[in-house]
Amino acid sequence: VTGHVRVPWPLPIRLVVLTGITALSLIAAVRLGAVSISVAALAAALAGRGDPATVTIVQSLRLPRALQAGLVGAALAVSGATFQALLRNPLAEPYILGVSSGAAVGAVLTVVTGWSVRTVWALPVAAFAGAVLSMMLVFRIAYGVGRTLDTRVLLLAGVVTSAFLVAVVWLVLTFADPESVRSAIFWMLGSHANASWRSVGILAACFAPSLVVLMSLARPLNLLAIGEPTAVYLGTSVERTKLAAFATATLLTAASVSVSGTIGFVGLVVPHAVRLIWGSDNRSLLPCAALGGAAFLIAADTLSRSLAGANELPIGIVTALVGVPCFVWLLRRPTSVLR
Amino acid sequence: MGIGRTARCGATARTRRTAYAVASIALAWCMAGSLAACTQVSARDTAAGQHATGIDVTDDGGLAVHLPQTARRVVSLTPSATETLISIGATGQIVGRTRYDVAPEVASLPSVGGGVDPSVEAIVALHPDLVISWEIEKREERQKLVSAGVPVFILRTQDTTDVFRSIQWIGKLTGHDSAAAAVAASVRATLDSVHRSVATLPSRTVLFVLYDDPPVTAGPRTYIGQLISLAGGRSIFEDAQENWPTVAMEEIVRRDPDLLILPIGKFKTNPLDRLRHAAGWRDLRAVRSGHVATVPADLLNRPSTSIGAAAWVLRRALHPEVADTGHAPAPDATP
Is B250 within 8 Å of A33 when comparing Cβ atoms? Predict the structure, then answer.
């Protein structure tokens, strides 16, 4: 789409390389952690043999956690790329329409009522419900303004709804006991500590069809990125594309937020990084961003739980501290497609 | 406590999240490590002199405190101090409490907010001649109270030695020295009898679950850690350096304790149903075999004259096979 002349790697090679990087970070994630496990013990534990504690650590703590981080990273990156294309705004990211704030309201309500302490699924379900409700509210506001969906209005509706919901969260927390405030804040900072095979399964079941839908919209999204009149002229059913893409990307974000809280930076920067390297054709951007986001978040989660011993660093801190320098390097690279 | 302010001024989603992060880390750290945060402040030599002109002492925060006379109107910003005041017969001198006080003796008294974020105005309006607070109390709030003419006394209550010292302090400041000494002696006797009742028994390994997500426990140099070993238990994190360490789930699985102790109460919902399904927890031997004891959080959270009762509750949880003796309080202390 942009006028770069460099011949980039063909898509299959990019995907193979990114899959390799994701596999490496997955191996590191299973290998590293608070308890050190030898390679032999790790192999035995993966096969379900050896010390039962090690088997538990590897099979029910590290593996689901790494896979959840990968799925969330992929979901946020794909969703961020979609939002950036739809809103034609480089600052767009998965949470820009208030999904995370809606999820936070749901999550905080279960925390202060003690429901999340008693029941394992209460918080993710409420967070997902909050995210979906806030999304419906935002679209209701945006569609109430004109006959078609104006992305500028949608953006504003998202920002003000988000501001309102954040105020609700802090209002509730102002009157909450310290323990609830603590739990709510840990949730809002984002973490994969509560990953389980069930959360991995649910997330995978959301992610696979969403990726298929968004991939099928990749070409219309390319046209939309040029401008809506052009897209209409070139035969895109603009309104249908916008609605389908927004809904899919938002649901994907809602699913991610409900299992892991708000993890910033991935959805904003991974798509940009992929664009800087290989250009902004959504047909290759979406799958590359998915793999890049997965590798990046698995690595960030591994760092967050192995850098400071038992005190896990909030993963959002790691994504920003590691991601920003990498991104600046990409931006300044002589072969960057922006140059 | 500043969070609301920081969050409100965020104009964009990103600024807001950064503000969240900063404010929340500050708060989370402050709460998670709460008491641990200030342990470096060494309790100064606590030589106190009661001169004709009043009481001049140095508190556990290292600052000089002057009272013209023994305190008649006391605001307690920490429920443990409230409990100690009640047990040494100073109930009539308490004029204000926090919203976390559960003792029926002070239920009718006005609340001045939380112990971490009390309302300075509400405190001043009660015309106290002494505010008893704890280490976490913010400097500027103390300064505001002091400049309003209200003396503030900071207590350090990390271990049992601190608890006995604070009983003595509270007795001195409120003019109940001898009652305080008598109560302290009886608490000491209770602790001794708890210890004697388990002296010949093998100790069981235990995890005291102060918080479960992320897991936080009591270190060996806290009063809870000390009461656990006194009551015939051995914490799986007795090697912890911090007082209230955050511990990795992996490490809990590896050290696999005989018993989990969960403090539950008005402000602590019982998490057991969730832990039975939560990754890591559900694989623990103690959870699978049902070796999970609940203890009243209100009792265990109070480094006060109630540590004797707390020791008995812990001993019942750790060694239910042993019959209660002598000083054991009525079992209604257990929920």
Answer: yes
Q: Residues of A with CB below 8 A from B268's CB?
A: 179
Write the DSSP symbol of residue A313: P
| pLDDT above 70: percentage of residues in chain B | 80
Spell out which residues of chain A touch residue B214, defining contact as CB-CB under 8 Å: 186, 191, 193, 312
- Spatial neighbors of B221 by CB under 8 A, at least 6 apart, are B158, B159, B243
Q: Which residues of B touch A159 (CB under 8 A)?
A: 12-13
pLDDT of residue B47: 39
Q: Which of B272, B99, B120 is nearest to A177 (CA)?
A: B99
Q: Which of B102, B244, B269 to mutate to test the interface with A (most CBs of A within 10 A)?
A: B269
ipTM for the assembly = 0.83
Average of per-residue pLDDT across B18-23: 47
Residues 6+ apart with CB under 8 A from B97: B75, B76, B79, B82, B106, B109, B110, B111, B112
- Distance CA(B70)–CA(B147), nearest Å, equals 20
Cα B66 vs. chain centroid, distance in angstroms? Answer: 25
Whether the per-residue pLDDT at B6 is higher than 50: the answer is: no
Residue pair B7/B213 in contact by the 8 Å Cβ criterion: no
Contact call for B17 and A264, based on CB within 8 A: yes
User: What global pTM score does this model have?
Assistant: 0.81
Other C-beta atoms within 10 Å of B42: how many?
A: 9
Give the pLDDT score at B87.
95
Question: If you compute the radius of gyration of chain A from its CA atoms, what whole number of angstroms results?
Answer: 20
CB-CB under 8 Å, A96 with B250: no
Residue B113 — very low, low, confident or very high, per pLDDT cuts 50/70/90?
confident
If you average pLDDT over residues B209-219, what whole number do you get?
92
Contact between A315 and A306 (Cβ < 8 Å)? no
CA Rg value for chain B: 21
Does residue B14 have a pLDDT over 60? no
Given a cut of 50, whether residue B46 has pLDDT beyond it is no
Q: Which has the closest alpha carbon to B227: B164, B295, B314, B296? A: B314
Q: Rounded distance, CA B170 to CA B191, Å?
A: 21
For A53-62, A144-153, B23-32, B90-99, which range has the lowest pLDDT when averaged over its residues? B23-32
Convert chain B into a string of H (helix), E (strand) and C (coil).
CCHHHHHHCCCCHHHHHHHHHHHHHHHHHHHHCHHHHHCCCCCCCCCCEEECCEEEEECCCCCEEEECCCCCCEEECCHHHHHHHHHCCCHHHEEEECCCCCCHHHCCCCECECCCCECHHHHHHCCCCEEEEECCCCHHHHHHHHHCCCCEEEECCCCHHHHHHHHHHHHHHHCCHHHHHHHHHHHHHHHHHHHHHHCCCCCEEEEECCEECCEECCCCCCHHHHHHHHCCEEECCCCCCCCCCECCHHHHHHHCCCEEEEEEECCECCCHHHHCCCCCHHHCHHHHCCCEEEEEHHHHCCCCCCHHHHHHHHHHHHCCCCCCCCCCCCHHHCC
Instruction: Report the percentage of chain A scoring pLDDT > 70.
Output: 96
Q: Is B330 exposed, middle or buried (0-12, 13-18, 19+ CB in 10 A)?
A: exposed
Residue A97 has which token pair? 């329409």
Check residue B18 and give its pLDDT.
Answer: 46
Size of interface A-B (CB pairs under 8 A): 129
Measured between CA atoms, the residue of chain B closest to residue A181 is B28
Phi-psi label, residue A265: left if phi above 0, alpha if psi -120 to 50, beta otherwise = left
